Amino acid sequence: MIIFVGMKKFLALATGILLTLSGMAQEREYFSRVRFDKTVHDFGLISVKDGVQRCSFTLTNIGEEPLYIEAVVSSCGCTSVEWTRTRIDPGAAGTVSAAYSNDEGAYPFDKTLTVYLTDAPRPVVLHLRGEVVKKKQ
Questions:
Q1: Can you count the helices (H) and strands (E) in the chain?
Q2: Which of 40, 45, 81, 120 has a 20 to 30 A CA-CA distance from 109?
Q3: Cα–Cα distance between 67 and 60 in angstroms, integer?
Q4: Is 137 helix (H, G, I), strand (E, B) or coil?
């Protein structure tokens, strides 16, 4: 009985590892088709009075097939986003641009932009980070 229970745990663990490795291989295969210039933009210290802060992320299609940015979803209503809506051919680049409205008071922030690409096994998550302060020092 003890051997049987141990064998069940071993098989469950082995199956989990194989599924994880399979998913990683698919992700590696996809991300060998697209490259982001960065996945984090750090605004650093910004003042409440600085107004809207803007940044952009560039992605390059390094694969052999065209791709599209299907959608970009912001984690907060304080961040608006625009992106390349046309086909991105091999060798070409597209952008995801964000405008962060820092009018919610002084606090550190880490907002996310979830980018959905054609045929991607999962979305890419981009981060906007920084700290809003009352006055710059």
A1: 1, 8
A2: 120
A3: 10
A4: coil
